[in-house]
Design brief:
By secondary structure, this protein is mostly beta strands. The strands form four sheets. A five-stranded antiparallel beta sheet has the order 10-16-15-12-13, with no helix packed on it. The chain contains no helices and 17 strands. This is von Hippel-Lindau disease tumor suppressor, beta/alpha domain-containing protein.
Length: about 200
């Protein structure tokens, strides 16, 4: 499964840490940028561990585990990658989200528990944009906006196969949860400046 990595707010990294018990997998990091990027693992204490300086237009394979997040960064931006499965088909594509011809469809960041949410909150000053949420699961999901105080605000309940277009802003995070009780978070989504982004909920 290929994921185009998109820039994330800097405070997000402080919320992340590796969780033990996930299956082993291989991630291929692909640098499509014209600058070097640095690849870092986030350990179980939330600390960054440097692994690789990836040259422009190059790639490398990294053994890791589901539940172990990675941070890829340049001097000006960073993105988070979460391995999604143990099938050795994970590809983390590092590219400019506004480059002509780039697909604006993006994979959301999986989260396992509400522990990641206290650090997520809306910040003022971001550019206006639109996102279309597409529910590709076999169950209903809820779409929440996280306000500047870090509180969830319900905006939509999506049935399987349903879509919902929402005007929002860069630096305004959204959370996707299950409908069945107890409600469980599935994804957190950070809009980018790319117009008409599609957030596919797997």
């Amino acid at each position: 499964m290929a994921q185009y990595l998109v820039p994330n707010p800097a405070h997000l990294a402080s919320c992340l840490r590796s969780i033990n018990g996930g299956s082993s997998t291989i991630v291929t990091f692909i640098n499509c940028l014209s600058v070097e990027v640095k690849v870092n693992w986030i350990d179980s204490d939330g600390k960054l561990k440097f692994y690789k300086a990836l040259a422009p237009n190059s790639q490398y394979d990294q053994q890791t585990y589901v539940g172990h997040p990675w941070v890829v960064h340049t001097d000006t931006a960073f993105a988070v990658f979460h391995p999604l499965s143990g099938d050795n088909l994970n590809r983390a594509i590092i590219d400019n989200p506004t480059r002509p011809g780039r697909n604006n469809s993006t994979t959301l960041i999986p989260i396992r528990e509400m522990a990641a949410l206290p650090c997520a909150r809306s910040l003022n000053g971001g550019a206006s944009t639109y996102v279309t949420f597409f529910n590709n699961r076999f169950e209903d999901v809820r779409v929440y906006w996280i306000d500047p105080e870090g509180k969830k605000k319900l905006y939509e309940t999506l049935q399987p196969g349903g879509t919902y277009k929402q005007q929002t802003y860069v630096n305004h995070p959204w959370v996707i949860t299950t409908v069945t009780e107890p409600e469980r978070p599935i994804y957190i989504f950070h809009p980018t400046a790319a117009p008409n982004t599609t957030a596919t909920i797997f």
